[in-house]
Design brief:
Aminopeptidase, about 100 residues, 6-stranded mixed β-sheet, 2 helices
């Protein structure tokens, strides 16, 4: 969680997908705190957790409506687009991060 004072301003979760792969999930930052480093801190913390727990890869699934999270956060951290799926009027974008 990202906290400011007594308010939760962001969240991120990690779920095991397989022995070698984790899923980055529930990445949310309150609109008033976007662009201020909370998302970066959350992703860094989640990736550190994955490294400490022996995962080789981290997947993040986003929608085409999440362009800032994809471009300004995940891709800057080293996530690469793996594939896309069309679902009604949006695309589901699967990003992957290889832990070194």
């Amino acid at each position: 969680m990202a906290v400011e004072g007594s308010a939760i301003v962001g969240t991120a979760g990690v779920k095991e997908d397989s022995k070698r792969k984790a899923l980055l999930r529930r990445l949310f930052v309150h609109p008033s705190h976007r662009g201020r480093g909370a998302g970066s801190m959350l992703v860094d913390t989640a990736l550190d957790f994955c490294k400490m727990n022996g995962y080789s890869y981290v997947n993040f699934r986003a929608t085409s409506r999440m362009k800032p999270a994809i471009e300004l956060l995940c891709k800057k951290k080293g996530f690469r687009e793996k594939d896309r799926y069309l679902f009604d009027d949006i695309q589901i974008i699967n990003l992957i991060y290889k832990i070194r």
